[in-house]
Specification:
With 339 residues, the protein is of the alpha/beta class. The chain has one domain: Luciferase-like domain (TIM Barrel, Alpha-Beta Barrel). Strands 1-2-3-4-5-6-7-9 form an eight-stranded parallel beta barrel, surrounded by seven helices. Helix 1 links the parallel strand 1 and strand 2. Helix 8 packs across helix 9 and helix 10 crosses helix 11. The mean pLDDT is 94. InterPro entries: Bact_Lucif_Oxidored, CmoO-like, Luciferase-like_dom, Luciferase-like_sf.
């Protein structure tokens, strides 16, 4: 029997299309599709890609294209964005792109929206063709997207075709408290990026629940947390696999976004980082669950009880594909109580 705290809890995957050392982009995309097919068989709920730019280690820049690629290669799992960085795009273009996806794969496409650039400042200005300090109204642009998706927009001068009348659930993504207020006010589902920004998570979830207003989409709050999970048969093996993730996060501090490296003896980590860097990396990963099934189950139980989330999304930065799939299998067994 599964632990009662996990009963009814949905489980999903976030993919950055992470480039592993020695892999081509074609191999990277093939890995994503292979992973999506595997977790679909395991009963995962959704498979999301996140928009990033100008990063050698991340190949999910053309997020909508990857969503179509994976949706076309799977059958039942929901596929979507976690998220599309809306300030980088015209709402009309996103409505058309996701309207096309929703028409091709009805009932399977999600649109998660973030307000961060998903890249460095110079690249963000290049994408937007405008300075970053220009005021941006995130809520207004989400509302415009909702208009484009609505059937009531049929007589407007500007229409999203395809897009109009297509059922595309919109999510608000957040890594601080600002988006929690917005998701609550708009009555939209809320996903928090606890996999790299844990500091304000509990406050954000409390705000979302307290200020939530029912909408046509949701009668009550629906919250999801994204966390890092690296599961293996033993704690020692999981710690070994996690070294790839630690080195990748160290690259954020040192501005070295190289492809994901193969794992190594955890004792070698002390040679890679300063005490300050170690503190920063481990703070960012304070909601990472690394270990065997009992270890992860214990940690996740407390996490779910504290947050009250309805869904856990996992990102697993594991170098070896077979071990990555096995980690997803173990996580599914924790969620369902199956051996």
């Amino acid at each position: 029997m599964s632990d009662s705290v996990f009963n009814g809890l949905k489980y999903s995957v976030l993919d950055l299309a992470t480039v592993c050392q020695g892999d081509s982009l074609q191999e990277t995309f093939a890995r994503s599709l292979q992973t999506a097919r595997f977790v679909e068989q395991q009963g995962y709920n959704r498979y999301w890609f996140s928009e990033h730019h100008n990063m050698e280690s991340v190949a999910s820049a053309a997020t909508s294209v990857l969503i179509g690629y994976v949706a076309g290669g799977t059958n039942t799992i929901r596929v979507g964005s976690g998220g599309i960085m809306l300030p980088n795009h015209s709402p009309l273009i996103i409505a058309e792109q996701f309207g096309t996806l929703g028409s091709l794969y009805p009932g399977r496409i999600d649109l998660g929206l973030g307000r961060a650039p998903g890249t460095d400042g110079l690249t963000a200005m290049t994408i937007r063709n405008s300075p970053l300090n220009i005021p941006y109204d995130f809520q207004k642009n989400i509302e415009q997207l909702q208009v484009y998706f609505s059937k009531e927009n049929a007589h407007a001068k500007v229409r999203a075709l395809p897009g109009e009348g297509v059922d595309i659930p919109i999510w608000v993504l957040g890594s601080s408290t600002d988006s929690a207020y917005l998701a609550a006010q708009m009555g939209l589902p809320y996903a928090f990026a606890a996999h790299f920004a844990p500091t304000h998570m509990m406050q954000a979830f409390a705000i979302y629940k307290e200020y939530f207003r029912p909408s046509e989409m949701l009668e009550k709050p629906y919250a999801m947390a994204c966390v890092n999970i690296i599961a293996a048969d033993t704690n020692e093996e999981a710690a070994f696999l996690a070294t790839s993730m630690y080195k990748m996060f160290l690259g954020i501090f040192t501005n070295s976004r190289e492809p994901l490296q193969s794992p190594f003896d955890p004792a070698g980590l002390s040679d890679l980082w300063t005490p300050e860097q170690e503190y920063g990396v481990k703070h960012m990963l304070s909601h990472a669950f690394i270990g065997d099934k009992p270890t992860i189950a214990k940690g996740l139980k407390g996490f779910v009880e504290n947050t009250g989330v309805q869904e856990i999304m996992t990102i697993s930065q594991i170098f070896d594909q077979s071990r990555k799939e096995y980690s997803f299998q173990l996580f599914k067994e924790i969620m369902t109580g199956n051996s």
